[in-house]
Amino acid sequence: MTRGPQPKENAVRRNKHGHSQTLSASTTEGRALPPGLGVKTAGARRFWKTWATSPQSSTWAETDWAELEITVKLVDAFYAGDTKLAGEIRQRTAKWGGTVEDRNRLRMSIENEHQDEGQGVSAESSPTTDLDEELYRLLSD
Known about the structure:
Blueprint: E1 21-23, H1 42-52, H2 62-79, H3 86-94, H4 100-105, E2 108-110, H5 128-140
């Protein structure tokens, strides 16, 4: 048995947040990785592509793209072996809604988020061999 008064029929939820947003699950075209950044690792290039084509990036302003450029440099250094940058990278991606928990905290939802769940990442979309080699080298030091 539940405690308290029984809910009214046709109850209306009144605490809906006005600043919540629902994004389309389709990926955006995004931006190309600026060659002037000097990104050397495959992991950092994959990070850029993932975020540049994410549903979140469809609403980004120039300042958000500048933050992505700074973060991809940190990710490049991380994959080059500077693992102490992991916490900073995590904090930055949380502000964009990197995980389900982050999106819930930001009151952000993505339509049809689990629609493509059964599909894996194609071999053409990411250089997994290079990424695996980089991760192995990074973790074996």
